[in-house]
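In the current project phase, we have settled on a layout for protein records. One protein thus recorded is set out beneath this paragraph:
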Amino acid sequence: MASANRQFLIDHLPKGKLGPEVFKLGEGPIPSPKDGEVLLRTRYISLDAANRAWMWGATYRAALSAGQVMAGGSLAEVVESRAPGFAAGDFVFADTGWQDYAALPAKRASISAVNWLAASCLSVVEATRAVRSAILASKT
């Protein structure tokens, strides 16, 4: 496991178009899960229009402010579990924010169908790689 938790922090709230200057890369400690929590390692983050809307003000979630980790959902891997029903290696969907690691209450992580989805995505990637290799091999 890494020794630091890389995080995309909001440097300032944008006034116009959203650009990379709005964010800064920071580091924090890797959190330790408490009883009833899971430590998650982010694998894939969600990036969509809602991320921008949260910078404009409150929506279905509180508004974001400068200095915060950019909010967002992710497909994450359970690194450590202190909650029943979750084990290291499980894949979950959770609101981890844009950071490598997050410790969250297990009730805020959804394991339903995500392990199947993660395995399916990996299978598609592997299948695509095999087809591509076969096509390339047939051209030589």
Observations:
- Helices lie at 49-56, 114-138.
